[in-house]
Amino acid sequence: MKNVRIIISGKVQGVLFRQSARDRAHRLGLEASAENCEDGSVCILAQGEDEAVDQFISWCKQGPPAATVRDVTVVQM
To answer: Residues 12, 27, 43, CA angle at the centre, nearest 5°?
Structure first.
């Protein structure tokens, strides 16, 4: 079981990143929440099986089609 905090920066607000992330997490069987941060990034808390969390992190590196991801920081909790 992994529990991570993922911070995604770039063009990630106003492009349905949070909703897309919640949908992807749900499909992977993860518990996840996502929120916009004041600095323009998106912060996601995700928990679940190791492999599913790893797949989710990989997805976050691209995000939905309208997003432009510049950086992804993952912190194990």
So the answer is: 30
